[in-house]
Structure formats: C-alpha cells, structure tokens
Amino acid sequence: MEHLGFLFAAYAIIFSVIFVYVVFLWRRQAALDAEVSALEARLHALKDAASKSEASPRPK
Amino acid sequence: MNRNIRTIVAAATFILMIAALFMVFDYAPTEADQGIVQRIFYFHVPCAWVAFASFGIAALSGILYLWLGDRIWDDLEYAAAETGMVFCTLVLVTGSLWAKPIWGTWWTWDSRLTTTFILWLMYGGYMMMRASADDTAQTARFGAVIAIVAAADVPVVIASVRLWRTIHPAVIVTKEGGHGLEDPRMVAALLVSLAAFTALYGWLLMLRFAQLRARTRLGALAREIALAYAAAGDD
Question: Shortest CA distance to B154 belongs to which of B94, B97, B87?
Fold first, then answer.
C-alpha cells in the first residue's frame, strides 16, 4: 500500500476537476437559456405591437 | 431530441465509470514493479486519448469553418478545444502524480512530457485568445488557424516515445511492437476505462456545444431585435 496518497490524489483530482467543469457548464447553460427566452419574448412583443399598429386605422 | 441523447450518454457514462472503477481497483492485479500507484495509468491513458481526439475534432472543425464559413463549425471547434484542455490538464497532473513515486521527480523534460506540455500551452493560448477577443468572424478565423496548427503536435506526442530517447513507458505499443500490459485483466480494465472516458467526453462536448449554439442564437436574436427597434423608430 506504498504511495496510496498519490493514487488517491490522482483520482480525487480527476473527479473534482470534472465535477467543477460540469457545474460550471450547467450554470452557464442555465444563464444562456434564460437570456434567450427573455429575448425571444421581447421580440414577440415587438412584432405583436408592430402588427397591431398596422391593423388599426390611421386618424384622418 | 438532443436533450434525450445527452441523457442517454450521461447514463452510459455513469454506468461505464462505475464499471471502470470496479475493474481498476478490484479486477486488475497490482503491477509487480510499480505497485499500487500504477493504477493511475488506467485513468491517465483515457484522459490522453480523449484530449488528443478532442484536439483532432477541433482541428477538423477549424478546417470546415475556414472552408464553409458556417458558424456551427466554429462552435464545435471551440467546444472541442475547451473540453480537450480539461482532459489535457488532467493528463499532465496525473502523470506528474505517477512520476513522483516512480521517477522520484514531479517533472522532467522528457520528449513525451515536453511535447504534451507544448500542446497544452498552444491550446491554452487558443483559449486565452477566444476569451479575450470579441466574438467576431475574424476571431473565429484566427481560432481555426490556431486549432489546426496546434493539433499538428498530437502525432508528434504520440510518436515521441519511438522517435526520441525517453524514459516515458510505451504502454500501448512498445518499440518492439508488443504492448506493455502483460495481464489480460489489465487490458480489460484499460478498455473499460477508455469506454467510460469516451462516453464522458461525448457528454461534456455535447453540453458545451449546445451552450455555444445557444450563445450564437442569442447574438442573432439581439441583432434582429436591434433591427426591429430601429425599424419601429423610423415609423
């Protein structure tokens, strides 16, 4: 069981780095998805407003 | 659809990783000369395999981006380079943790270690360039060129143990043409670990690629909204 510390450190570092990277990815993905949804909603609202103003008759 | 594929790959990764840990720590015998620390090898080699494959994908995507100009290839190139960097870093760290008890030093300027470190530095430069520069077509073109040039080091790393004098073990294929794993249980443990890391890499690459595609969509939407506001202002 000589050098057990090196073996433990190697596997601990591998799993820690992968875990941190996955958490990092998930947080960035969630932030991006929220931003995309907000922008899409804003765009739809803008298009609706534009179509309503076209449909309503202009005052003479 | 993509989310379903990612879930399936994540589940396969989990199962394969459990199997790999069982094979490495219970099934494979302890190596006679190096002792228990040799078991680092079963995760060190798969990390190297996925890092090199990832840099290959980055280079191929870079070529396709320069050729076709489609943003999807730039996103794939960036995702592959970043994921490859994670695994290349793990290769250097786990190799160093193996080297200390076996060679008596954390680092030596051996041909394989040096060429791997050069590869890591080149993709580190790529990551710094992508992180600091604006997200423009010119940045994407520069990135593609760096990814292609840096990947040219991958065959050099692989061949280094046969081209130059080295103390790094040639485990997969030795100079004599055989392989360094004498026990078939060691070979089985390595193969399961390779499968586990390939699945893990595939999952991480899909996650990062989906994220970069979302970022591209976001940029396109922001431009569309800006145009719509400008048009509304004209009316």
Answer: B87
Domain residues of chain B, as ranges? 2-26+36-234
Q: Which amino acid is located at B48 in the chain?
A: A
Residue B75 to residue B140: CA distance in whole angstroms: 9
pTM for the model: 0.87
Determine the Cα–Cα distance for residues B222 and B33; give it in Å rounded to an integer: 61
- Rounded to two decimals, the ipTM of the complex is 0.86
Q: List residues of B whose CB lies inside 8 A of any A CB.
A: 35-37, 39-40, 43-44, 47, 86, 89-90, 93-94, 97-98, 100-101, 200, 204, 207-208, 210-211, 214-215, 217-218, 221-222, 224-225, 228-229, 232, 235
What is the per-residue pLDDT across B82-103, written as a single tens digit (0 to 9) for each? 999 999 999 999 999 999 998 8
Amino acid identity of residue B156, one-letter, is V
CA distance B193 to B48: 12
Q: Is A45 on the interface with B (CB under 8 A)?
A: no
Could you give the CA distance from residue B78 to residue B144 in angstroms, rounded to a whole number? 9
- Euclidean distance between CA atoms B176 and B173, whole angstroms: 8
Is any Cβ of chain B less than 8 angstroms from the Cβ of A3? yes
Instruction: Provide CB contacts within 8 A for B179, sequence distance 6+.
Output: B171, B172, B173, B187
Q: Which helix (H) or strand (E) holds B218?
A: helix B184-234
Please compute the mean of the pLDDT values over residues A17-35 and round it to a whole number: 89
Residue type, B191: L
- The lowest-confidence range among B48-52, B155-159, B163-167, B181-185 is B163-167
List the one residue out of B156, B70, B93, B90 whose CA is nearest residue B119.
B156
List of chain B residues whose C-beta atoms are within 8 Å of the C-beta of residue A10: 40, 43-44, 93-94, 97-98
